Each structure stands twice: as structure tokens, then as C-alpha cells.
Amino acid sequence: MHIGVLALQGDFIEHQHILERLGVQTRQVRLPAHLEGLDGLIIPGGESTTIGKLATDFGLMEPLRAFARSHAVWGTCAGAIFLSKDARRPQPLLGLMDIEVQRNAFGRQVESFEIDLDVPALRQVEETARPFHAVFIRAPIIERVGAEVEILATLSDGRIVAARQGHWLATSFHPELTDDTRFHRFFLKMVQEVTPLHQDAAVSR
Ligand code: GLN
Q1: In the UniProt entry, which residues are flagged as the active site (predicted)?
Q2: Residue nearest to atom 4 of ligand 1 (CA)
């Protein structure tokens, strides 16, 4: 398995380290050609406006959309914003996931915090009741999800912080900044699930 990490800006190295710990080959993606042959892609946290501007400048917007149609893609924090259809302000977005996000949703006082989340879907990769320790850094909230979107985690007040739509995954927080590899393993499982779909698409083209 070969997973790309969009490496325009943000904490792409941390994602690579976790993937490599899991025995997965990784590649930094900066140009459209770097997507070739990858099985999935992670868009890291950072600053979503900067990531969008750089992706536009490097001619990556359409190649990323085309890749995402047939491959699993996961956005963490800024990456989740970049994957969304609506960030409530003008900025380049891939516009793929049917979610509306509110950037920097936690205000000044609690720009960064850590909290234990219950994420039932992670039991698909490990049978444990252990909560997921989630790191939020100037994080967005997922304000609205479309009918095809599955909510994977909420805060205790009900605000959505992780969601999945088919082979696309969005988390408001940063699993790459913890030692817990469950979210990465969950994503790798999604990558494996989408592979037959990918082959079908190639066959019917
Ligand atoms: N605040 C950033 C944004 O709106 C996201 C922060 C992050 O990725 N940790 O793009």
C-alpha cells in the first residue's frame, strides 16, 4: 500500500511518521504527477487558505478532485476544511465532502485543547472501549452534514468533529499528533475497501 500526504504546508511529516510505523509506504505530494500510483491520500492540518492557494498555484485542484473520486482521502483539521463543500467564506476548497465547516470554531480562550472522545467506528480496527485522545488546534467544527455523511464523533454538546462520506474522512482534530494509530488504521481500512471500486471504475472506463 502506498499512501500520499499532501505536503504543501502543515504537519504532513507527522502523518508520514505514523504511516511508516504502520509499515505503509508514503510519498509527499506537491505536484499532480505525485498522485500517480497512490492508493489513498491524507491532507494534513495547517492553514486551509494557504493549502488552497498553494494547491491552486501548483495546478493540483482538479487532479486532487479526480483522484478523490476513485480513492480514499482523509483531511485532518485544515485538511477537513479543504475537503468540504462550504467553509462559509471565500477560499479555494476541493468541495467534495457534503459538510459545512465553521473555521476556528472554539474562539480565543480555548484555541487549543485535548479531550477524550468516544468513536464507536474505531472498534472496527480494535476491540476496545478506550476513548480516543483528540488534539484540537484552532480547530473547525462540522456544522452541517449532508444525507450521505455518517457522523463518527461529537463533543459532549453534540458538535460534530469527525465524519465520513463513502471513501472520504474528515476529522477536526489531529490523530497524527498522538501515539494512537487507530484513526490511521481506520483510514487504511477505508483505502482497502475502495480498491475494488477503483478497479471497477478502471474497467468500465
Ligand atoms: N485554523 C486552521 C484553518 O482554519 C486549521 C488549524 C489546523 O489545521 N490545526 O485553516
Answers
A1: 77 (nucleophile), 174 (charge relay system), 176 (charge relay system)
A2: 103
